[in-house]
Amino acid sequence: MSVKLLPETLINQIAAGEVIERPASATKELIENAIDAGATRIEIATAGGGKSLVRVTDNGSGMDAADLELAVRRHCTSKISTTLDDINTLGFRGEALPSIGSVARLTITSRRHGDASGQQVSVQGGQASPVKPAPANPGTVVEVRDLFFATPARLKFMKTERAEAAAITEVVKRMAIAFPQIRFTLSGPDRSTLEFPATGEDHLARMAQVLGAEFKENAIEIDAAREDVSLSGFVGVPTFHRGNSAHQFAFVNGRPVQDKLILSAIRGAYAEQMPAGRYPVAVLSIELDPAFVDVNVHPAKADVRFRDPQLVRGLIVGAIRQALHREGDRAATTGAAAMLRAFQPGFSETPRTSSAPQAWGQQPAPAAPWSAASSVSRPLDLAVSAPYQPRPTQGGFDAFALPTARADTASETAYAPEATAAGYRLGAARAQVHENYIVAQTENGLVIVDQHAAHERLVYENLRKALESDRLASQVLLIPDIVDLPEEDCDRLMVHASELDRLGLAIERFGPGAVAVRETPAMLGEVDAGALIRDLADEIAEWNTASGLRNKLEYIAATMACHGSVRSGRRLKPDEMNALLRQMEATPGSGTCNHGRPTYIELKLSDIERLFGRS
């Protein structure tokens, strides 16, 4: 077969298959064009989930007749000149409009500020009409009707109108978060009107518009920099989480992206603080020299490639962990709201049947005076354990090595007159309820603490400090384990050999395609050295980091902390309870246990008064 040049219409349709995957893709491209044109107001209207109509109206700089004629031709753009090394706009390929026009009925009406009248061009199935005068307000209106009418096969792969409309909503939300100085309006017969008024430089106010007011109350600010990369944004406290990662937003130089490296870094930063199956809420913005990031990886521009991905990942993980350390004893405000709902008259003790996942990923608890379906303060261990027997513990927990109190000594949990709540975040202990919950009085309310969950976090943080200090204890193998690997994997492992040695894993090169394992971490006990080494080699190949071994050790430390902490069912003396509260205040991450459950619930005095009708 001879080589031939494809027709222009077919070339555009092929490009449309890459750039315009669904109505949401077309909407994203049109919004990006409006932002690049300097718009401060963008209105989006849809019908039929975007398949029948997508109309984007902006008050940007507009276009004249010459611009309109070129705008519907491939690879015509005002956003780059001769190089891709310095891209400071959202769009730059010059493919979106001609690609849309090749598979839909496209009409563009635009008017420059100061021009007497507007201009209009139409493209239907790839055929452009001559530019003609048309009445228009300053700015641009792009109308896309009957998307994919020219390629009917693509319509078979579209989802329902509701699903396509929801995808467009997500696009608008991401753009709204990225550009709080722009007013966004989304409307149409297929949806309820959604409006995001401009908030200027108040990014948190715009995030509250999109993610809800609860996020503003439970957000921690991020502001960090490393070398020439800066990171800013907000993340939720560990006890404020969602059932999927849809509430994680990332932006690189203002461009919304869905990059797996960034999402993985967010997940790693919340390790041991997030319940299984739950996801943190985060909005992160990364700013760096455009020359250090490639935004031209994919036609849809959703993925990016960093020149130094490990630097970016380390910055994200370190900044989030530092922020959580700074406000480590904060708990989500949603816990108090759930408690207040449980106190409301008419509250049902029987958990409601729902298809939604239960909190913390657990099965519904049996009916009880305190409903597990609505409370986030239920004990970690529902069965009352045997009386706690003191055991040697890590340094810093001497208050819990005291002899166990007798169960019939009521005075041990009596009010301690010398205990005062002044100046303490978690107040002063006043009582112990059901040998598991500590009730403390604060300056403006009260706190209920799960003693087992709280002490579990304290023990775990102490063990983690041991991981950060000297070389971990290791066990020497009588016969070194020889692991055969590709030569490139051996090279990668040896680059990280010193880091692995600090974690108790001693390796050395054994020929061109093998590694000898001489020592393994004592905490792991009996371990399959070959499987461990291969997993580390795979991780280093993908992320250029050997954090997998540390994650395994931290998981073991969490298990040890669970078994070495104060158990449910043990009575505590007033000084023991207060010692626990003081250590929680001084310990990072103490707002959650190692499994991500909250360690305490706080009720403001105003909330309590509202329950009694006093406010």
Features:
615 residues, alpha+beta, 9-stranded mixed sheet, 5-stranded mixed sheet, 18 helices, 25 strands, 32% helix, flat
Residue-averaged pLDDT, rounded? Answer: 78
- Tally of separate helices: 18
Note the beta-strand portion.
15-25%
Share of residues in helices? 25-40%
What does this structure look like?
By secondary structure, the chain is an alpha+beta fold. The chain is built from 18 helices and 25 strands. Strands 1, 2, 3, 4, 5, 6, 7, 8 and 9 form a nine-stranded mixed β-sheet that branches. A five-stranded mixed β-sheet has the order 10-11-16-13-14, with helices on both faces. A hairpin with a 2-residue loop joins strand 4 and strand 5. Helix 12 (451-468) packs across helix 17 (574-585). The longest helix is centred in the first third of the chain and has 18 residues, at 161-178. The protein is flat. Residues 347-418 have low confidence and may be disordered.
SSE blueprint:
Elements: H1 8-19, H2 23-36, E1 41-47, E2 53-58, H3 65-71, H4 96-103, E3 105-111, E4 118-124, E5 127-128, E6 132-134, E7 139-145, H5 152-155, H6 161-178, E8 183-187, E9 194-196, H7 203-211, H8 213-217, E10 219-226, E11 229-236, E12 241-242, E13 248-252, E14 255-257, H9 260-269, E15 279-280, E16 282-287, E17 293-294, E18 305-306, H10 309-326, H11 334-343, E19 428-433, E20 437-442, E21 445-450, H12 451-468, E22 474-484, H13 487-495, H14 497-502, E23 506-509, E24 514-521, H15 529-543, H16 547-563, H17 574-585, E25 600-604, H18 605-611
Parallel strand pairs: 1-8, 13-16
Antiparallel strand pairs: 1-2, 2-7, 3-4, 3-7, 4-5, 4-6, 8-9, 10-11, 11-16, 12-15, 13-14, 17-18, 19-20, 20-21, 21-25, 22-24, 23-24
Helix pairs in contact: 1-4, 2-6, 6-7, 9-10, 12-16, 12-17, 13-15
